[in-house]
Specification:
The protein is built from 2 helices and 3 strands; from the N terminus they run αβββα. The chain has helices spanning 6-9, 44-53; strands at residues 14-18, 23-29, 32-38. A 3-stranded antiparallel sheet has the order 1-2-3, with no helix packed on it. β1 and β2 (23-29) form a beta hairpin. 0% of the residues are buried.
Length: 56
């Protein structure tokens, strides 16, 4: 992950990538990366918040 702006803006917590057929959610954790894909329907932010509440 590009860390060039981390000092000024803080670390990236997650990214949402929207493609023509799918939405990809990448969540960065201390012990790794979780990558999810979903259809374009639904609230990505709500999904992210629920995942962040999990302890993994």
């Amino acid at each position: 992950m590009d860390t060039m702006l981390d000092d000024n803006l803080g670390k990236v917590r997650w990214k949402i990538t929207t493609r023509e057929k799918v939405v990809m959610i990448t969540i960065f954790q201390k012990n790794g990366i979780l990558i999810l894909s979903k259809d374009s329907n639904g609230d990505s932010e709500k999904i992210i918040q629920k995942i962040l509440k999990l302890k993994f």
